[in-house]
């Protein structure tokens, strides 16, 4: 997490460490335009092992960012979707990241 003690002007530079992890950023970016993505398809998109993806999905689910459901057609197929809270959290994360980029460029976008 990016922090600077005592300076309230730098508060927007704080990024959520749960979302900032590279594989989780990729998961969120893949899920954003979709209603849901099957676990196997998400694994191919992200390019991580099943166990690594499962750990990241579990962490995001425990935080209420994603929800895991079974496919009605095949109960063995897990589907991953962003929750409303997850969409809002990712949007907030992206806005903060944009602020950091603007700040690094001297205030110009």
Question: How does this structure look, described?
Answer:
There is one protein chain. The protein has a three-stranded antiparallel β-sheet with strand order 1-3-2. By secondary structure, the protein is mainly alpha-helical. Helices cover 51% and strands 11% of the residues. It has one domain (16-104): Winged helix-like DNA-binding domain superfamily/Winged helix DNA-binding domain (Arc Repressor Mutant, subunit A). Mean pLDDT is 87; it is low at 1-10. It is elongated, with a radius of gyration of 16 Å. This is Transcriptional regulator. It comes from Pengzhenrongella sicca.
Outline the secondary-structure elements.
Layout: H1 17-20, H2 22-31, E1 37-38, H3 39-46, H4 50-62, E2 66-70, E3 78-82, H5 84-104
Quick summary of this structure?
With 109 residues, the chain is mainly alpha-helical. Helix content is 51%, strand content 11%.
What sort of overall outline do the alpha carbons produce when their principal axes are compared? elongated
**CATH evolutionary superfamily:** Winged helix-like DNA-binding domain superfamily/Winged helix DNA-binding domain
CATH topology, what is it called?
Answer: Arc Repressor Mutant, subunit A
Unreliable runs, pLDDT <50, ≥5 residues?
Answer: 1-10
The profile of the biggest β sheet is: 3 strands, antiparallel
Instruction: State Rg.
Output: 16 Å
Protein name: Transcriptional regulator
Domain HTH marR-type: 1-109
GO molecular function: DNA-binding transcription factor activity
Can you give keywords for this protein?
single chain; about 110 residues; mainly alpha; Arc Repressor Mutant, subunit A; 3-stranded antiparallel sheet; 5 helices; 3 strands; disordered N terminus
């Amino acid at each position: 997490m990016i922090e600077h003690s005592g300076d309230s002007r730098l508060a927007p530079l704080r990024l959520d460490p749960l979302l900032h992890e590279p594989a989780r950023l990729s998961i969120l970016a893949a899920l954003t335009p979709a209603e849901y993505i099957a676990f196997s398809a998400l694994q191919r998109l992200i390019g991580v092992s099943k166990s690594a993806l499962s750990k990241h999905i579990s962490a995001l689910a425990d935080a209420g960012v994603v929800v895991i459901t079974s496919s009605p057609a095949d109960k063995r197929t897990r589907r991953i979707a962003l929750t409303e809270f997850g969409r809002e959290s990712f949007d907030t994360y992206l806005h903060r990241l944009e602020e950091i980029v603007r700040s690094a460029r001297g205030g110009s976008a």
